[in-house]
Design goal:
Elements lengths: L1 H5 L3 E3 L2 E3 L5 E3 L9 H17 L4 E3 L2 H4 L1 H17 L3 E10 L5 E12 L3 E3 L1 H10 L3 H21 L5 E5 L2 H4 L4 H11 L7 E6 H5 L2 H14 L2 E7 L6 H6 L4 E4 L1 H4 L6 H16 L3 E5 L4 H9 L4 E3 L9 H14 L15
Parallel strand pairs: 3-4, 6-8, 8-9, 9-10, 10-11, 11-12, 12-13
Antiparallel strand pairs: 1-2, 5-6, 5-13, 6-7
Helix pairs in contact: 6-8
The structure holds ligand C2E and calcium ion (2 copies).
One calcium ion binds next to loops.
Length: 340
């Protein structure tokens, strides 16, 4: 019934929205005798539904086998942040005009003693739900700015792009904290780029606009991440002090084979330029895509063809090698090697 009720498009201030829901359910008393247990199990079922892209999942004990692992990972992640056990990777973004790396997107990795390398993909939702996203982001920004500052003294002045969740962006302390970190590491605000998604700004539009304006007044750059995958209205986006759009890799990966994807990529480049924004394509996996994007006037490129997210110690040799020889580094499978 809930699914059916949500099925018709929903109209909000002249916008037509398609809303869908992943529903989890648990039964009393089979799955629990008290509200806490039932809610926890409903949650497990709902996450299983989201993960498997199903409309509805009924709780079963089998699903719960994942849950203790998740719970223990949350507390381990908390410790890992505190003990500096995460590490950062920097994925280069090439400027189309100058053909030089002008920015890097910062990603964190967690080398777990038992589970191996864990990527943000599986952790961000967990971190958001457990209140860990704020300290995590703070850790990421602190360390990225420290690295930026160290590279700057060596003559490499890169823009650092950091992914920011809605919760973090809308946190009342966030702007002041970032201001403090920029000053502490002596990094010009223009060299910090906050990557936010359309959905995160739609969450509380007025507050988002207020916060983004404060950042923009400082000089911090704002990128709309995963552009094209959300449902924000263009007239609202136009009001935001955004400096760049990032085309999601889901459109870029197959743009040479899939006409629809190509249309979206081209339209986004034109739209961005008409709004006075830079456009960056993510998911550039081969030379043909790179060439096509270049022809279309895309301003920045990022993807495995240029390089993987690199450890800081691998970034510098790759950068100088690539810059001096006009070549891209050769990326071996798994570990990254620079092509010196
Ligand atoms: P995103 O920001 O859209 O990042 C793109 C993801 O695609 C990254 O995965 C990246 O490693 C991968 N990627 C980059 N180039 C290519 C390519 O050429 N081909 C393919 N197939 N993939 C490519 P990652 O690092 O696992 O991050 C996944 C998502 O997690 C990110 O998507 C971002 O939304 C989120 N995320 C990552 N780090 C953070 C963070 O510190 N805070 C927050 N709030 N979210 C984060
Ligand atoms: Ca991003
Ligand atoms: Ca993306």
């Amino acid at each position: 019934k809930i699914q059916k009720a949500l099925a018709p498009p929903y109209t909000l201030e002249n916008l037509t929205l398609d809303v869908s829901a992943s529903v989890g359910a648990a039964l009393f008393p089979q799955h629990g005798n008290d509200a806490d247990t039932l809610l926890q199990r409903v949650d497990v079922a709902m996450y299983a539904a989201k993960q498997d892209k199903k409309d509805f999942v009924l709780y079963s004990e089998k699903l719960d086998q994942q849950s203790p692992r998740r719970l223990s990972l949350v507390s381990e992640l908390r410790e890992a942040i505190k003990n500096d056990e995460l590490s950062l990777r920097y994925q280069p973004i090439i400027n189309n005009l100058t053909q030089v790396v002008s920015e890097a997107e910062v990603r964190w990795r967690w080398e777990h003693k038992i589970h191996g390398t864990l990527n943000p993909d599986e952790f961000i939702p967990l971190a958001e739900r457990s209140g860990l996203i704020y300290p995590l982001t703070q850790w990421v920004i602190t360390n990225a700015l420290r690295q930026q500052s160290a590279w700057r003294t060596l003559g490499l002045d890169l823009g650092m792009a950091v992914n920011i969740s809605a919760q973090t962006l809308l946190d009342p302390e966030f702007v002041d904290q970032v201001t403090g970190l920029l000053a502490a590491h002596d990094v010009p605000p223009q060299q910090l780029i906050l990557e936010i998604t359309e959905s995160s700004i739609m969450f509380d539009q007025e507050l988002a606009l207020h916060i983004l304006t404060r950042f923009s007044d400082m000089g911090v750059r704002i990128a709309i991440d995963d552009f094209g995958t959300g449902y924000s209205s263009l007239s609202y986006l136009r009001k935001l002090p955004v400096t760049q759009l990032k085309i999601d890799k889901s459109f870029v990966l197959d743009m040479l084979e899939n006409e629809n994807d190509a249309v979206i990529v081209n339209a986004t480049i034109d739209l961005g330029h008409n709004l006075g924004l830079k456009v960056i394509a993510e998911g550039v996996e081969n030379e043909d895509i790179l060439k096509r994007l270049r022809q279309r006037g895309c301003d920045g490129m990022q993807g495995y063809h240029i390089n993987y997210p690199l450890r800081s110690e691998d970034f510098l040799p790759w950068f100088y090698n690539a810059a001096h020889l006009g070549q891209r580094a050769v990326a071996a499978k798994g570990e990254i090697r620079s092509s010196i």
